Amino acid sequence: MFEARALSDRVEAVREARVPDGQVLDCERDFETLNPALAEDLGLLVDALEPASYPAEWLPDDAPTLLARYASSDLTIGMPGDGSVVWTRQTEPPVVLVKPRVEGSPEAFVDFLLAEALVQADLDLPEHFIGFFEESYRDLDRAVDLDPTGTYQVAAALYDGWVGLQTREVFADWHDDHPELADAWQDAGTRLEDRVSGLPRAVARGDTEFADATELACAAIKHAIELPAPFAALDTDAYLDHGPEYAIQWAEKTFDSLEDA
Q1: Organism's domain of life (predicted)?
Q2: What is the value of pTM for the model shown?
Q3: Which site from 3, 25, 137, 248 is most exposed, i.e. has the minimal number of CB atoms within 10 Å?
């Protein structure tokens, strides 16, 4: 299921600087969530496994089954929306998993995704949004006027945006030390600009669901491109500093305004 991935020199340099003991592994098949048996196969390649778990009372009664499973004591790696590259610190040393779906993507972009995951694994971050919101996830659930799946998507996006506020400071410093990675970071942001700028119109016309718009806007935060309202309020030091509390206030104000529109 897992095999060590050969890294380019630029990604290897990031690994050595950030998580020198970390492993980057190719996965045999795509996944959203590794089932516990496959996740535990990582035990053959690492020194230790320590599954993350969270109190069940942090979750709304109608939380998606996968989220409830993630919060349990089962070893769960990867969740919907995590993308093509997943990192985890539930292993010792930390591991970055690369899904087959990256095949065919430009090499420079794949290298950026790998380097990004290594940077995230090095920062003192929760591995998932439930570790970010903690018990306040119930408050977010009340603020977001969507079904449980939509609320999950918004929560994942908000967490992604908060992480992006931190990682983009690292990416911006790559122009000197890792120019190829910096170029890939900027190129990915450029490709998002037109899509992001048109989000308010797309939501107003009903062409884009609000949860999808939030996901795209928050994904763009790490690229330091300009966001339209109401998402621009997330690209702030206030969000970086106050995290979950700020995200919930943003959701309350945003959904109140949507109801009034």
Answers
A1: Archaea
A2: 0.95
A3: 3
